[in-house]
DNA sequence: TTAAGTGCAAAAGCTTTGCGGGTAG
DNA sequence: CTACCCGCAAAGCTTTTGCACTTAA
């Protein structure tokens, strides 16, 4: 993520904390900073690894709690994926995903026509929609090549 | 799932096994049968629980392996979700999801206008699309009520 | 001051694997 | 016969939790 966008996001986080009366800790700032630099869809453990390179003092539990907290206030989001470990996403604006059902990889795509899809009314279900993603499910290049040459 | 659709799916599985030379075991048939009866998005453990009620002899490892195998041949699919345990979905036809980012629940919806969305060409990326889902992300009724009354 | 966050270590939850034996085709 | 599958038990990976201590506001 570029320097400017990143700074804007960090400022947004400061604002959200102030608004909600949440203390802004050094550790959470490191976690946020690291996640904004990772532009794929890291697991908590991958974030921990990157955090550890910058500041080995931050504990595993803190990284897990920080990610949950950052997602809760909305400065990052959780990615939807077919795998077994939670994945986080620093991109909060509308975009879409290619999802490999073999290796669980998630690849970002942008497509204006997908952005324009008609969002159904879900108010009758009591469900409040904040956002949407289109997931194109299938098989990525690597997994296809692996299957073709057994 | 109604009796007829279910039988068709079981027949489809028999056919796929025959085509691919895979042995068709009693245990996998039980797992498939059970998953087709569950119309939400069960975790492997929830499937195991249901399998155990029908046949306590089937082991945990077998359920995990069977689910993976059933998904691989395509008679069931993996659901994309924000949580930490793999979820399976007996619905293989096009449909869409409400995803609660608080409790990770996935609710099925159908919507013809979403079904008709323009699928982008991903061949340049080497990605083969087999399927798509729209995920409407947000907060479900229960979680909203919990937040409003703290 | 006080509500919230942190580190640690242990527990809990989810999934895979190695292996000896069994079975469908 | 020969892949492939099964059950078991152990290991491995991922996440949460209780508690004593610290810190932002």
Concise account of the structure shown:
2 copies of one chain form a homodimer. With 150 residues, chain A is of the alpha+beta class.
Description:
The structure is a homodimer of 150-residue chains. The first copy, chain A, is an alpha+beta fold and 150 residues long. Chain A folds into two domains: 77 residues, Arc Repressor Mutant, subunit A; 56 residues, Dna Ligase, domain 1 (2-Layer Sandwich), CATH 3.30.1490. In chain A, the strands form two sheets. A three-stranded mixed sheet of chain A has the order 4-3-5. A two-stranded antiparallel sheet of chain A has the order 1-2. The N and C termini of chain A lie far apart (38 Å). The model of chain A has no long low-confidence stretch (mean pLDDT 96). Chains A and B meet through strand 1, strand 3 and strand 5 of A and strand 1, strand 3 and strand 5 of B. The first copy, chain A, binds a DNA duplex (25 and 25 nucleotides) through helix 2 and helix 4.
